[in-house]
Amino acid sequence: LESQFLRSQRMESLGRLVGGIAHDLGNLLVPITLGVKVLKRRVDDTDDKVDQTLSMIQKSAERGSDMVEQVLAFARGVEGERVALQPELIVEEVEEMTTETFPEDVEVHIRTDADLRPVVGDATQIQQVLMNLCVNARDAMPDGGTLTVEARNVDFTEREARRNIEAEPGGYVCIEVRDTGTGMPDDVADKIFEPFFTTKEEGEGTGLGLSTAYSIIQSHDGFMDVESEEGVGTTFWIYLPAADEEATVEAQSPTNGEAEHE
Ligand code: ADP
Predict the structure, then answer these.
(1) What is the pTM of this model?
(2) Which domain of life is it from (predicted)?
């Protein structure tokens, strides 16, 4: 528990520092992105070399902006709205995004229990966590494979909660993200939730995806778990506490969703 406390303290100060830098960097990228757009429009199409160079600048600026977004999301960490949400709607969004953008040799399977309980939280943040896990899964399957996302209700008994320090007795919604990718050795799996830990090449990964995911889920009073086997694949679990009865009613009527928000 103490190490969990220290971890969240460390993440908080890191978050502030990094957030400040990212914010300024993001501002610097704006004129570059806009400037390239203007230049691209002016360049005459016969000049390949100039066009290629502009495209290269554009790509780098876009990648930079993506990274800044990731870093800012990490720094923002715990803030977010708290409204009643139906998890299947979030999973459906993720299904749409993955089937639209993932390569064809990555098969995406989505399954959600019909009677999923509502949870309380920030839909955008939870979706971001799921997308992070899905993108990592895709990256772990360079030769294709299967990505499975499953959501189901789970109950922890007093006894199970005692064995798992992060769980409270009661109802949760568990979202499982499973891939048939490279998997990872134990010494990698032990570090993946640490900020800036990455095995990806420079410029490819910030190492903030999973630490952001972890802090977002923790701020929802939930927790995450992972199991991985080299050459077989990796499974992540996100546990979000189920909302109480009142929230259940509100989540069923979309117009009332905001009522939970303070
Ligand atoms: P990034 O994706 O920028 O590297 P993350 O925090 O999202 O940062 O992930 C950290 C590391 O965890 C990755 O570099 C990778 O080594 C490992 N990892 C995460 N998800 C998977 C996965 N599904 N399969 C194999 N390795 C993974």
Answers:
(1) 0.74
(2) Bacteria
